[in-house]
Amino acid sequence: MIRLHGVTKSYRLQGGGRRLVLDDLTLDLPHRNIGVLGRNGAGKSTFLRLISGIVDPDRGRIRRDVRISWPVGFRGSFHGQLTGAENVRFVARLYGMDENAIIRAVADFAELGPFLHQPVRSYSSGMTARLAFGLSMSIHFDTYLVDELMSVGDANFREKSRLAFQSRLRTSRIIMVSHSMGALRQHCDCGLLIHQGKALFFDDLSDAIDAYHRANGLLPRTGDHGSDDDDD
After folding, report:
1. Residue 153 lies in a domain
2. One domain for residues 37 and 122
3. What pLDDT shows up at residue 230?
4. Of 125 and 104, which is predicted with more confidence?
């Protein structure tokens, strides 16, 4: 269970003032596969970063009774001056894991070869993404946070990533942000709609998708209960 009580988050605007993103959220998130819906800029990514602990709320409390990942593949926490291995070691130490075992697992998964021991600032975006995804899959969490499914590397690496992700979901749950209704239906069974700073939980994902369409004045596409994507 993840519990939010009175959680508010805003960001400072470049020209002055603040933009309110999430406003006084109080809700309980069950240990299930939850799809998060909302228009671009609604606060979906901010919501994931809040419950992961990457950012703090302006006000309110978040209680986590399960072990929660950072957003899968999130690259923003890597230190560019450190090598890939040093970044992995730091994260493993932070989570109380066997540092050498995690480095070996990431090295095997990410397929970076000697670049694992080069500064991350020298990586291409694809290499950084492979390092990030490999690290995400090398540590077990009760709940994985997914901000859009990534497609990284060649066909073989993408297939390996898909299988690793599916393997984790046999014993763990996810909270997923995606504009693809097909992806949400494939992985999630309930939903959370973020709209105008508020969040509303739905026990059935289809109800959340219907509410998303109504809130944004959208008409479901023909065969919407299939695998079509919806773009904001």
Report:
1. yes
2. no
3. 46
4. 104
Q: What is the CATH number of the domain that holds 45?
A: 3.40.50.300
**Cα separation, 53 vs 144, whole angstroms:** 13
| Token pair 């919407």 in the structure block, residue | 224
DSSP 113: G
Question: Is the full-model pTM beyond 0.70?
Answer: yes
Task: Write out the residue range of the structural domain in which residue 160 sits.
Answer: 1-67+142-216
Q: Residue 232 falls within a domain, yes or no?
A: no
Q: Which residues contact 183 (CB under 8 A, 6 or more apart)?
A: 149, 176
pLDDT on residue 227: 40
Burial 211-231 (b: 16+ CB within 10 A, else e): bbbebeeeeeeeebeeeeebe
Same domain, 15 and 28: yes
Q: Where are the beta strands (DSSP E) in 93-158?
A: 143-147
Q: Are residues 61 and 161 in the same domain?
A: yes
Distance (Å, rounded) from C-alpha 196 to C-alpha 85? Answer: 41
Last residue of a domain, one of 139, 157, 186: 139
Closest among 184, 166, 167 to 175, alpha carbons compared: 184
Residue pair 195/38 in contact by the 8 Å Cβ criterion: yes
The rounded distance, in Å, linking the Cα atoms of 105 and 125 is 21
22 - beta bridge partners?
A: 9
CB-based contacts of 7, cutoff 8 Å, min separation 6: 22, 24, 25, 26, 50, 57, 59, 60, 61, 62
Do both 102 and 210 map to the same domain? Answer: no
Q: How many domains does the chain have?
A: 2
What is the pairing mode between strands 143-147 and 68-71?
Answer: parallel
Round to whole Å and give the CA distance between 15 and 18.
9
